[in-house]
Amino acid sequence: MFGYMGKLLRINLTENSIKVEDLDFELAKKYIGGRGLGTKILFDEIDPTIDALSPENKIIFINGPLSGTPTPTGGRYMVVTKSPLSGTIASSNSGGTWGARLKYAGYDGIIVEGKAKSPVYISINNSEVEIKDAAHIWGKMVGEATDILMEDKKRTNVLAIGPAGEKLSKVAAIMNDKDRAAGRSGVGAVMGSKNLKAIIVTGNLKVSLFDTDAVKAYVKDADKKIKDNPVTGQGLPAYGTAVLVNVINANGILPTNNFQEGVFLSAEDISGETLAEKYLIRKDPCHRCTIGCGRYTKTDKVEGGGPEYETIWAFGADCGVKNLENIIEANWWCNQLGVDTISTGATLAAAMELKSKGLLDHIDFEGHPLDFGNDDAIVYWTKKLANREGFGDEMADGSYRLCEKYGRADLSMTVKKLEIPAYDPRGVQGQGLNFATSNRGGCHVRGYMISPEILGLPAKLERLELKDKPVWTKIFQDLTAFIDSIGLCLFTSFALGAAEYADIYNSVVGTKWTADDILLAGERIYTLEKQFNIAAGILPEEDTLPIRLLTVPMPSGPTKGQVHRLDELLPEYYKLRGWDEKGVPTKAKLEELGL
Amino acid sequence: MITVKLYSAIRKYGGKEVMFEYVEGLTVRDIVEKLKIPLKEISIIILDHFDSTTDIMIDREVKESSLIHLFPPMAGG
Question: Which fold has domain A241-419?
Answer without folding.
Answer: 1.10.569
